[in-house]
Every structure is written in C-alpha cells, then in structure tokens.
Specification:
heterodimer; A: alpha+beta; Rossmann fold; OB fold (Dihydrolipoamide Acetyltransferase, E2P); 6-stranded mixed sheet; B: mainly alpha; MetI-like fold; two-stranded antiparallel sheet; 74% helix; binds adenosine-5'-triphosphate; binds magnesium ion
C-alpha cells in the first residue's frame, strides 16, 4: 500500500514553528507562551493530561482558532491570519468531524473532489486508503452506521488521503481497541516515515507517544514542559511534572533532605541517611534552595526490596501488592510517603510486611522543590 | 413519618384516597378539545361527505337532501371552472412556495453568517407572521389602490406609470402572490434560520481544512444538512399555499372575472353564491383528497430518507 500512497517527493512537506504563541478564552489561558520548532518531516507528539491545551495548539496551527499572541509559521509563511484552506494541512479531528450526510467513500473522496482530481484517481486513492485504515467493507455506509472506532478510522483515512505540507492528528487512535490500535499505530508510523511529511500528533497515551514520536513535547496547564526524543524525556525528565507523568507507573517522587553544607553532600529520607554517590552528590551541591528540602525521583524499576535492614535502605511497610502477571507492583508506605516498586512476579511481598527499600543513587533524579525543575 | 404512612395508605386503597377527578384527570384535560373537534371538525366533515353525494335544495325553514351517488364528482371533473381553478391553485402554490423558500433561505444564510443588527431584523420579520391574514390583505388592498395607493404613488414619484394592480387580470394574481410572499417568507426564514444555527460546526471545520470554497461548502455541506428541514418547510408551505382563500377573497373576490379563482374560491362561490352545497362539498372533498395523497407521497418519498434508520 505504501508504494501508492507514499510516492516519495510528491508531498511538499514543510517545517512548523510556534513562536511565543498564546491563546486565551476570556479568562482561561489555554496555551501560554508556546515556542516550538518542528523540523521538516519530523513526527512530533504533543503529550499531556486532559485540558492542557493540546487540541487548542493544533487548532491554532490549523487556523480554526484565532491566535491571541505570537507567531505561527508553516515553512517560511506566517500563517497567523491565513484561512485553513490556505495552510495546506490535513487534520484528524478529536471529534472525527465526518460529513454525516455522505457515505464513507464520499467522506474519503471529499478532499480530493475539492482539488478536482480525476474520478479514476480519486477511486484509486480512496480504495487504497480504505485498505490502510481497514474500512474497505464500510465504504457504502453513512457515518451514523459506524462504531466510534470505525468513524475514527474514516477520519484518519480522510486526512491521509491527501499529501499536505503538515499532518495534524488529534488523538486519532483513542477509540480503537487495543489490537487495532497497535496495528494502526504501526501502519501510521511506517506511513509517516515513508511520506516524510511533518506530523503533529496529539495524544494523552504515553505508550503511543513513545513509540510514534521522533520527539515528544509534553504540556501541562497550557505550558510546554519539555521537548525531546522519547528516550531522553524518559531518562532525564526536566520537571517534577514530566517525571510524574511519564512511565507506568510513573516515577516515585520523594520529599528528601539534601545538604551540602560542609562540602560533603548528604541525603536523608526520613531518618535514614543515604550515601549520595558522585553523580547525585554533584547534583545536590548544585541545588540552590534555602533550607534542605529537595524532591528525589526514583523509577519503580530502580527500587530494590530487602527483607532485612541494609545500609542505605529505608524501612517501610507494604501497603498494597498488585500482580500484573509477569511482574508485580509493590506499593510501600515509608513514614507517610508512598513508593512503588516494580519487581519480579515471584518476589515475596504481602500486605503489611515490613520491608526495606533501596535504590542506586546514580539512577535517581533530583528536583528543586520551589521551581520543580530538574537539577543536574 | 406521617407522609410515608399516607403514601402507604394511598397505595393500599387508591380508589378511596384519590378523588375521581384525579383518577380521570387526563380525560378531563383533553375533554374540551375532544368536544371542539367533534362539533367543529368531525361532524361538519362527515356532513360534507354526506352532502357530496347528495343534491341539496334549500327550502323555507330547512333543506331537502336527495341522494344522487357520484353525480357531483362527475360534474366537477368535467366543469371547466373547476379545472381552471385547480390550475390556478397549483400555480399559486408552486410560485409562492418557491419564492418564499428561496428568499427565506437567502435571508437565513445572510443573517446566520453574522450580519449586524440581526436581532432587530429577526424581530421585524415576525410582524408579518403575527398579523391576521385579513388585516394583511386589507393593508395591501389599500396599498395597491390605483389612485391613492402608496405603491402607485411611489412609482409615480420615480416617473413610472400607475399600474392597475388588482384589476388587471394579467397582474392581479401575481400582485396577490406578492402579498403571500410578504407574509409567509418570514416563516420559511425563521425555520431555516433556526436550522442553520443548529447545524453542527464540525463538518464546516473539516471542509475548511479539506480546502473547500464557501460555495462548495454551501453545496456539499450546508444544503444536504439542511435538506430535512427544507423538506418540511416546503411541505408546510405548499399545503398552506394551496388552501389560500382569505387574501384573494378580501382583495379581489377571485377576480378580476374568474382570473384568480383558486379551488377554495370556487368552492365558496358554489356554496354561498349559488347555494349548491352538494356540489361545493364534492369539490371540497376532492380537493382534500388530493392534498392528503400529495402530502402522503411527499412524506414517504422526499422525507423518508431522513427519518429512516441507518442503512447497512
Ligand atoms: N472554545 C473554548 N472556550 C473556552 N475555553 C476553552 C475552549 N476550548 C478549550 N478551552 C479550554 O482550554 C483548555 C485547553 O483545552 P484543549 O481542548 O486544548 O485541551 P486538550 O489538551 O486537547 O484536552 P483533551 O486531552 O481532553 O482533549 C481547557 O481548559 C479548555 O477548557
Ligand atoms: Mg483535545
């Protein structure tokens, strides 16, 4: 299928740039000072919790929402005041936005009809795309006779049938079942690589973000938190929010005491002193807070459980144990702070057990408690 | 808990607790309507059907009714004035409906796309709807008056000759159609305007992104989405227009001559000028049947598409 769709060089893909873009709805600031460069051909995934401004950002880029402040460019062109049809974009709407009075076939054909392609070419492409998104047997139906997942695939098909400068996709897989989602995700990734068209993809599913993205942009409350390749944002979260958002379960965030008063950095969790090691020690000495408080991040897979007290291990009680089949999640209560450990499926742990947990300080992350930014 | 006890008791012996009028409340409420319907609609209709198969002769203090089978219907089918009036009725209904829908749709689109002062405009447009048709007709009758009417006055002001609006047989029917258009366009407008405002925004955004022009969006999105409401408005207007009576009766009594005899006027003339109640009933009955048949076919054919469950 890719051969037909992705005839290389046909699309005139273009880079996208947001420069200090703001969007206010009355008193609500939906997007706050967003600056973001998306190089030509990149797949950028916008990730964030519900209501963080993902859709609003896409809609501003599409021209469906006016811009309160800042500049948006597609290629070299400032598009701030251009109508949607002058921007050469294709979009998958979160709400599908299908033409309810047209059949699936006509929905797919619509963007091509507008461009006055020949009947034969339209038919060819419609059948081709229908195959990609697996709706060949639905072509004669009207949208109201489709399930949510089927509608979503039609919406996706209608977007990818064109070869625009930029693809905008707002949660295009959210309504598919797990199997179909995996399949379509793969197809989409191949398709995007093949076409090499700049794509901005919105999701709140991190697995999707991690697998699809060249780079991930994480937003919260209208503010861009961090942009980078999936591996990097996972390995070096730039803020407490990103640390607590990525990963399933996400990183443990512990209130700790960190001091470097006499040149020797030290770390305490509750009453337990933890040897900081070189890397974390260096981070601690760069911590600029008054007082000794800091936030320490430890991934659940980095937490080790001991049945007896060891040096540098923290006493705790097992709060709950969740079995996932191939592994188990043990939630510990350490003097009021909860810590999740991801351990082997037959690691012994029962509710109420007294356990000691430890971790490699070299793999821990340190955050400033005031700015909530990462300290390296 | 006193109220709980009351409820329990009420469930135990409803007949004693609930008074008779409350048990029959539904019937009591619709009773006036049923009486009205029977006295003023059902009985006259049945009488009319009976009359349609009879020859009625008015006598001193009463009337004499002779059953004559389908003679009245046969006569009506051959009567040139009945045929002519059927043609005029059809012409009237088609012309006014078409003009009203086009004007109403145009206005609705214009206002829905955010023209200033649309609040004022919509309020003004309601005035023709709430005016009684006879008042409207009288108002226009005086406006059309050839010597003192305001329309000819305005024509003369710009150097145009006077027109015999209501007494020229080539013009009168159209002049009266204009009155109907004046009164009923707002009705079409309001329904279509409401429909346009309630259209989903989604497909418009999709079409804008898909690159469609305004005209293309109108043709491929607005019009198809509006079609169900448009269908209803057309039906309502066609049937209402076909029954026109008051305007023509007030302005020209169907004239000049018989040039504006619609079916309803023919019925009136037969019944109340010639006192041939049997014959008038037969024409009226045929007219009703035609309207019902037309309405049914229309609803089945034209509107079925929009109410049918999803095809698979
Ligand atoms: N038309 C609007 N008027 C007022 N507020 C709006 C409007 N559209 C969005 N918002 C607000 O802007 C914020 C961002 O909304 P947006 O739809 O961009 O979120 P999102 O990240 O796409 O969320 P989700 O994952 O739930 O789709 C929200 O607080 C929302 O309530
Ligand atoms: Mg959204």
């Amino acid at each position: 299928m890719m051969r037909l769709l992705g005839s290389r060089g046909e699309g005139r893909s273009a880079p996208v740039s947001f420069e200090r873009v703001c969007k206010r709805f009355g008193a609500v600031t939906a997007v706050d000072d967003l600056s973001l460069e998306v190089p030509n051909g990149e797949m950028l995934v916008l990730l964030g919790p519900s209501g963080c401004g993902k859709t609003t950002s896409l809609r501003m880029l599409a021209g469906l929402e006016s811009i309160t402040g800042g500049t948006i460019r597609i290629g070299e062109t400032v598009v701030n005041a251009l109508p949607p049809r002058a921007r050469d974009i294709a979009m998958v709407f979160q709400s599908y936005a299908l033409y309810s009075h047209l059949t699936v076939y006509e929905n797919l054909a619509y963007p091509l009809r507008v461009r006055k392609l020949s009947k034969a070419e339209i038919d060819h492409r419609v059948r081709d795309v229908a195959q990609v998104v697996q709706i060949e047997e639905l072509l004669d139906r009207k949208p109201r006779a489709l399930s949510g997942g089927q509608r979503q695939r039609v919406a996706l098909g209608r977007a990818i049938i064109r070869r625009p400068a930029v693809f905008l996709m707002d949660e295009p897989l959210s309504n598919l079942d797990a199997k179909l989602r995996l399949h379509t995700r793969g197809e989409l990734k191949r398709f995007q690589r093949e076409l090499a068209t700049t794509t901005i993809y919105v999701t709140h599913d991190q697995a999707e973000a991690m697998t699809l993205a060249d780079r991930v942009a994480i937003m919260n409350g209208g503010v861009l938190q961090q942009v980078g390749p999936p591996k990097e944002v996972y390995a070096r979260p730039a803020s407490v929010f990103v640390a607590g958002f990525l990963g399933s379960p996400p990183m443990n965030l512990l209130a700790v005491e960190a001091t470097s008063d006499h040149g020797a950095p030290s770390l305490r969790i509750g009453e337990t002193p933890i040897p900081a090691g070189d890397r974390l020690g260096a981070s601690i000495s760069r911590l600029r807070t008054n007082g000794n408080a800091a936030i320490l991040g430890v991934r659940p897979e980095d937490v080790v459980l001991h049945r007896t007290e060891e040096p540098g291990s923290v006493p705790s009680e097992v709060f709950v144990v969740e079995d996932l089949g191939n592994e188990r999640l043990v939630t510990l209560n350490a003097a009021g702070q909860y810590v999740v450990a991801r351990v082997h499926a037959d690691a012994p742990a029962e509710m109420g057990d007294r356990l000691w947990f430890a971790f490699d300080p070299g793999r821990a992350h340190l955050f400033d408690p005031l700015t909530e930014r990462r300290v390296d | 808990m006193a109220s709980e006890a009351a409820v329990a008791e009420r469930h135990a012996t409803p007949a004693q607790i609930v008074p008779w009028w409350e048990r029959n409340l539904a019937w009591l409420l619709v009773a006036p309507m049923i009486v009205m319907f029977v006295v003023f609609a059902l009985l006259p209709s049945l009488t009319a059907i009976l009359f349609a198969f009879s020859h009625i002769k008015l006598t001193r203090g009463g009337m004499q009714r002779t059953f004559i089978g389908v003679d009245n219907f046969q006569r009506a089918l051959e009567d040139p004035i009945v045929r002519q009036s059927a043609g005029i009725t059809l012409k009237w209904a088609l012309v006014v409906t078409t003009v009203e829908i086009l004007l109403g749709l145009g206005l609705a689109l214009l206002l829905a796309h955010g023209v200033r002062g649309r609040g004022v405009f919509t309020s003004l447009l309601i005035i023709p709807i709430i005016m009684p048709p006879v008042a409207v007709s009288l108002m226009w009758f005086f406006m059309y008056e050839p010597n003192f009417g305001v329309i000819n006055y305005l024509l003369n002001q710009v150097g145009l000759p006077s027109v015999l609006w209501l007494s020229d047989p080539n013009i009168a029917l159209y002049a009266m159609m204009a009155v109907d258009v004046w009164q009923a366009t707002p009705f079409a407008f309001l329904l279509l305007y409401a429909a346009i405002l309630s259209l989903p925004r989604d497909p418009y955004e999709a079409a804008a992104i898909d690159g469609a022009s305004r005209w293309h969006i109108f043709r491929t999105v607005t019009l198809p989405l509006l079609l169900p409401v448009l269908g209803v408005v057309v039906l309502l207007r066609l049937i209402d227009a076909a029954r026109v009576f008051d305007k023509i009766f007030v302005m020209t009594r169907g004239g000049p001559g018989s040039s504006a005899y619609t079916t309803t006027l023919t019925v009136y003339v037969e019944a109340f000028n010639k006192y041939d109640f049997g014959y008038a009933s037969a024409i009226s009955f045929m007219f009703q049947v035609v309207l019902v048949i037309f309405g049914t076919i229309y609803v089945r054919r034209v509107m079925a598409d929009y109410s049918a469950p999803a095809e698979s």
